């Protein structure tokens, strides 16, 4: 499963979530998946390198 598919599934689950705890868990998972996708995109574009930023 690609990261984009995972994000779309989490968004669909969030739309259908009934309980507050379930919504909170899905929101946390979605935030992590979105952050992971941003890192992947940055690595692909060469924005992030393997060297530390200092």
Which stretches are low in confidence, meaning pLDDT under 50 for 5 or more residues running?
A: none
Strand content: under 5%
Structural class: mainly alpha
Q: How many strands, what sense, and barrel or not for the largest sheet?
A: none
Mean pLDDT: 89
Distance between the termini: 35 Å
Number of strands: 0
Total helical elements: 2
Précis, in short:
With 54 residues, the protein is mostly helical. The protein is built from 2 helices and no strands.
Explain the overall architecture.
It is a single chain. This protein is mainly α. Helix content is 74%, strand content 0%. The protein is built from two helices and no strands. Helix 1 packs antiparallel against helix 2 (20-45). The chain is elongated. 0% of the residues are buried.
What's the helix and strand layout?
Blueprint: H1 3-16, H2 20-45
Please supply descriptive tags for the structure shown above.
elongated, mainly alpha, 2 helices, single chain, 54 residues, 74% helix, 0% strand
